[in-house]
Amino acid sequence: MPFSSAGQTRNFNPYFAFRTLAISSPTIIPRAEHNISRANISEAALKTLYRLKDAGFEAYLVGGGVRDLLLGREPKDFDVATNAHPEEVKDLFRNCILVGRRFRLAHVRYGREVIEVATFRAPHDAIDDADDAGRVDEDKGRILRDNVWGDLESDAWRRDFTVNALYYNVADFSVVDYTGGMADLRRGELHLIGDDAEQRYREDPVRMLRAVRFAAKLGFRIADASESKLFELGRLLDDIPPARLYDEVLKLFLAGHALSTYELLRHYGLFGYLFPQTEDSLTKEHDGFPITFVAKALHNTDVRVRSDQSVTPFFLYAALLWEPYQEELAACIEDGMDPYEARFAAFEAVIRAQQEITSVPRRFTQPVREIWDLQSRFDQRSGKRPLRLVSHPRFRAAYDFLLLRGEAGEALAELCSWWTDFIGMDEAQREMSVPKEDGDKRRRRRRPRRRNDSADGPADGGE
Ligand code: ATP
Ligand code: MG
After folding, report:
1. The pTM is what?
2. Number of domains, the chain
3. Is 59 helix (H, G, I), strand (E, B) or coil?
């Protein structure tokens, strides 16, 4: 594509070098030379852009929306950047709330769609730290707050990857490129902005997870230093609050590229910082079984996402933590607990350890427990028990989970096909199809024993 270039490169940041002179100039790609059409931008995003512009503010589409449109993909959401301050944005939109402490921005809501409107940020070293003590973690360089306003140019340089720092200007429909993002898009490369990858990861270690996520989603190569530091800096993720890591885990594994994301995370040694218990069980000798299980589960999730079937965080967590749970369960039983007690204790131990790293909302922990508990009930195929199991609210998820275990190599073929047949039947057929003996035995056992019964010896050995 015939883009005119002002010749700047991502590794030479003229903004920082000549900030006082402000001579850095962007490449402007006019409407005729790029493929972003308003027809592909959501109505909500366009309304937001125009309302800001009509009020006299600058307004740009930025981030994944611009990146994905340029790649001919459908954007997941639209982000807007403006010189209006959050309170000014709030005054312009009735349907607007201000969110975030670390990174304050406005959410403008249109039905189910939310447009994130962020005010241009200043670079991190542009302010006197005495004015804003506590903004950066002195030891580790992590940015704890990022609420100092700047202009379009400073906003571009503080973003994470060059391909995420392209701006679509609603005033003339051009694309503004300060960091060389357009060329990287064409090459299919992810470059951290600036010349010090380590510093950029230290400022915000979640950028490491974002690098992997975009590489998997876009099929891009992570370039040079941006890549090599991934192998070294994983431990920085230990300082990220569990709630933020939980949000990131959902983006990593529920967006349709879970399997390739997982493979990359393992390749860079990052997966263990998100799921240390799973990583432990993966690295043990298991005849390859657990590796297959997690990979199958993630592949399945991808297939579901791509065919518009629902995916849930609890199924994902149930799958990712299944192997550690199995190990904990075996240990509890070895310690002499009865099966019920052991299942509960193992669940508690595994979930609690995970919560410390990536919080899991309470409403999702109970379904994880149910999926795991129900696995032990699939063997009971006589009397009323299969009928009761099918009507359990978590049956479908538990059944999918059972199939997954079968696909991953557990010897469950016969059991899986029995249940598949069973749920394909109507109620009357189900009643007919289950063997009765077990139920009969139970009934016999419950009948009060008459004195002369004892002459026949014990009724049965009991359970
Ligand atoms: P997605 O397709 O997942 O929405 P995205 O690039 O839009 O991808 P968002 O999390 O929506 O990702 O963020 C919007 C933009 O904000 C990014 O493209 C990037 O420019 C900037 N950004 C987000 N997170 C960071 C970060 N941790 N550090 C620097 N810039 C960031
Ligand atoms: Mg986005």
Report:
1. 0.86
2. 2
3. strand
